[in-house]
């Protein structure tokens, strides 16, 4: 320690460097490290000088939007292998960077994250927040709390160890977040005489303070019976959630339920770790609506269990009854949502549609809006990292928050909707290795989850592409995105990552192509335009070919990884993109290539559709065009029409084409 190092118990400068940067209370029992440094596995130091209190750092817009985005600091060695690629985005003419503010240098590492020597997950996901930033001092109008001067921090009673008493989500009283613009002002609430656990009780209600340091976050604690009158108006008072438990157990016996839960934990939980190992799903104990939603998701995979494949061969749990149990309980709990309410709604949202050839887009979007409303009520849009609650609850809340955020992005992208969530007002946009606490995931499963988070970090900038800005111009300076080298490098989980990878790549390509597809051809265009158009179309060719190869390599064993509700939309997107490329081709050779690729894709999808239901939507939509007749649906240029008929005639002799021109 240098001569200028500060004493850790100094009255004036008692906080360590990390806690000072976060404006958090630095709790030290007898000697360093402090509690927060121990929790986050950071070095607890006291070397920074402080002559005066620092003002909270103002984050630039780029930093606020960039949490979780792949960093630009990828090594030169990682970029070197792609510099000679003729289709590399690095070879494209530089364009207005305002259209792709972060993507222009953020997709560099994508081709490596499927390899064993990919950058460590910590590079992407371990606390990307800048120094001086704490989850609770984010300056935005919707922030539900207030950052107070550090001198007021002493007014907050020091809580006992965070794992000792406070269980915000597991008590008998239901928590409801009190926002900064509500009638109960946090500045007033901070003067309450809280007990050592941060609780203040009235006759029926209570206030729970979970804030730390100079920031105050409070929840209103209410008994479940407080909304009895409101429930009476809707008829929910005639029964209770407990009454639905017996109904559930009568249609799903305990032994069947346990096996369905085992399937659920194997197939769903590695992608969505929204449960705690200390509070597992268990027949007869867990909430009935939560069990019913898990049974619904696991039911289609009964063939993967040696007993369920026989037990449920002739008589499966009635879906309508399970959904009625869920909907009845949700209607009851909507007045006072709980963590189990949010968990149930997440499972309903990611559940595939009952009919694989129907999107249910309006219904899913409405479900998503309801889920986000419940999450806001519970404060899941906040980062609880510095709250005075148990570490188990902190990590579960962060995992729930991230799952909601990323599900919203996938649905927005695949349904073609604007994002509902404002990234500046949703604080948990990535996870780190610390969030694995009590998740029940093995280290390998968590490693695969981190790879998925790396990929999903691109969804924000990709969604930004689909604004009116694409009408002006487009382009990137990023490197080419190549297909993963090894399909089995991440096991089965790697397959769904690969599908997401190809879809994100395809979505970027679609945005890049649009300016070239809407430019009036009677304009006088510079030579650079044609060079750039040629390179973009070459990149599109490589992207679609990789996607078609991916579909070709699928097998019936992949069914348990292609269940998320947006899987069907992804299969439909590749079909229509190839069709678009064929119709807008520049010559006969290019058009023939795409017609051949499309017929190959249709053949593979038809062979796999029974085993992989997510392919049926894309197959039905593209088959309907061929059934009607491509030349009767679209206006085809002469060279495109010629390529279409020649390809159809050539393939019809091999039995590989499923529809011939009328």
UniProtKB/TrEMBL annotation:
CDD domains found in the cross-reference section: fungal_TF_MHR, GAL4
Domain Zn(2)-C6 fungal-type, chain residue ranges per copy: 15-46
Superkingdom: Eukaryota
Gene3D superfamilies for the chain: Zn(2)-C6 fungal-type DNA-binding domain
The keyword Signal is assigned to this record: no
Alphabetized UniProt keyword annotations: DNA-binding, Metal-binding, Nucleus, Transcription, Transcription regulation
GO biological process: DNA-templated transcription; nitrogen catabolite activation of transcription from RNA polymerase II promoter
One Gene Ontology cellular component annotation held by this UniProt entry: nucleus
One Gene Ontology term of the molecular function aspect: DNA binding
Identification of the protein by name: Transcriptional regulator family: Fungal Specific TF
């Amino acid at each position: 320690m240098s001569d200028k190092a500060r004493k850790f118990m100094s009255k004036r400068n008692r906080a360590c460097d990390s806690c000072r940067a976060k404006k958090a209370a630095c709790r030290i029992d007898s000697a360093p490290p402090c509690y927060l440094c121990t929790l986050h596995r950071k070095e607890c130091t006291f070397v920074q000088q402080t002559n005066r209190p620092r003002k909270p750092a103002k984050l630039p817009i780029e930093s606020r939007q960039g949490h979780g985005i792949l960093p630009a600091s990828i090594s030169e060695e990682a970029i070197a292998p792609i510099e000679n690629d003729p289709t590399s985005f690095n070879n494209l003419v530089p364009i207005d960077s305002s259209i792709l503010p972060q993507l222009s240098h953020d997709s560099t590492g994508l081709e490596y994250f499927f390899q064993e020597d990919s950058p460590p997950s910590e590079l992407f996901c371990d606390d990307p927040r800048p120094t001086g930033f704490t989850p609770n001092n984010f300056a935005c109008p919707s922030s539900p709390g207030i950052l107070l001067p550090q001198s007021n921090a002493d007014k907050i009673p020091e809580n006992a160890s965070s794992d000792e008493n406070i269980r915000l989500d597991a008590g008998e009283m239901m928590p409801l977040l009190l926002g900064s613009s509500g009638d109960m002002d946090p500045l007033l609430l901070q003067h309450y005489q809280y007990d050592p656990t941060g609780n203040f009780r009235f006759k029926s209600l209570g206030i729970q303070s979970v804030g730390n340091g100079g920031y105050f976050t409070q929840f209103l604690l209410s008994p479940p019976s407080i909304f009895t009158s409101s429930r009476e108006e809707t008829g929910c008072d005639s029964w209770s959630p407990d009454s639905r438990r017996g109904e559930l157990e009568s249609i799903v016996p305990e032994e069947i339920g346990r096996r369905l839960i085992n399937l659920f934990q194997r197939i769903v939980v590695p992608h969505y770790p929204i449960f705690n190992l200390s509070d597992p799903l268990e027949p007869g104990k867990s909430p009935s609506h939560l069990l019913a939603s898990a049974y619904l998701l696991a039911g289609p995979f009964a063939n993967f269990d040696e007993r369920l494949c026989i037990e449920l061969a002739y008589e499966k749990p009635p879906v309508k009854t399970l959904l009625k149990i869920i909907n009845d309980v949700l209607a009851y709990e909507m007045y006072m949502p709980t963590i189990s309410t949010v968990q149930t709604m997440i499972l309903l949202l990611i559940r595939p549609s009952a009919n694989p050839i129907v999107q249910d887009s309006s219904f899913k979007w409405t479900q998503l809006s309801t889920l986000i409303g419940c999450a806001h009520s519970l404060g899941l849009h906040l980062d609880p990292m510095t709250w005075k609650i148990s570490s188990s609850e902190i990590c579960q809340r962060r995992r729930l928050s991230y799952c909601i955020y990323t599900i919203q992005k996938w649905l927005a992208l695949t349904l073609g909707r604007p994002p509902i969530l404002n990234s500046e007002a949703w604080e948990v946009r990535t996870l780190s290795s610390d969030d694995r606490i009590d998740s029940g995931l093995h280290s390998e499963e968590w490693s695969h989850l981190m790879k998925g988070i790396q990929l999903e970090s691109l969804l924000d900038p990709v969604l930004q592409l689909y604004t009116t800005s694409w009408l002006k111009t487009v382009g990137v300076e990023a490197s080419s995105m190549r297909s993963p080298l090894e399909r089995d490098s991440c096991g089965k989980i790697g397959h769904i990552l690969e599908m997401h990878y190809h879809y994100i790549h395809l979505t970027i390509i679609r945005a890049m192509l649009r300016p070239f597809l809407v430019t009036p051809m009677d304009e006088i265009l510079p030579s650079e335009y044609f060079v750039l158009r040629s390179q973009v179309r070459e990149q599109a060719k490589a992207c679609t070919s990789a996607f078609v190869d991916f579909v070709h390599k699928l097998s019936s064993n992949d069914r348990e990884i292609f269940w998320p509700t947006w899987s069907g939309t992804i299969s439909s997107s590749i079909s229509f993109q190839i069709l678009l490329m064929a119709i807008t081709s520049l010559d006969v050779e290019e058009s023939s290539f795409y017609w051949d690729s499309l017929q190959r894709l249709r053949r593979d999808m038809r062979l796999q559709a029974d085993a992989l239901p997510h392919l049926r939507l894309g197959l039905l939509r593209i088959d309907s065009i061929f059934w009607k007749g491509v030349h009767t649906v679209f206006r085809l240029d002469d060279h495109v029409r010629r390529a279409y008929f020649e390809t159809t005639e050539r393939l019809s002799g091999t039995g590989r084409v499923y529809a011939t021109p009328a």
